[in-house]
C-alpha cells in the first residue's frame, strides 16, 4: 500500500472510533476518488437510524451509485475499517465502485468478538419452481 492509502485507511479507522463514541458499532468507511481525494465518509448508524442496513459501506455504495457516473465510480476506492459483510459486498458490486481496501478481515473481527455476538445463519431452501420463477426474469438482462 502507498503512503496515501495508509492515510485513507487510517481515516476509516478514525471514523470507526467516531461511531463507537456515538454508541454505534465501530465501523467506518470513506470513498476516495481517482486522485485519492475523499469524496464521502460514513460510519455505522444502525442504532441511531433504527435501520439494520445503515452500514457505512452500504451508505457509500448508495451514494456512489446515485452521485457518480460509471466511469468515475470504477476508478474509486472504498477504504473501510473492516471487510464488508455480504450485504455490503453485493451493494458495492452493483454500485460500480472500483475496489475496496479494508483494515480488519472478517476472520480477525470474529476473533475480537466475545462469544454469542455473531448472527445465526438463516436457513435457505431452493431453488424451486424454476418454470414459474423464470417468467418475470427471462429477457430482463
UniProtKB/TrEMBL annotation:
Protein name: Nucleoside deaminase
PANTHER family reported for this sequence: CYTOSINE DEAMINASE FAMILY MEMBER, TRNA(ADENINE(34)) DEAMINASE, CHLOROPLASTIC
InterPro entries named in the record: CMP_dCMP_dom, Cytidine_deaminase-like
GO molecular function, one term: catalytic activity
Limits of the CMP/dCMP-type deaminase domain: 3-115
SUPFAM superfamilies linked to this entry: Cytidine deaminase-like
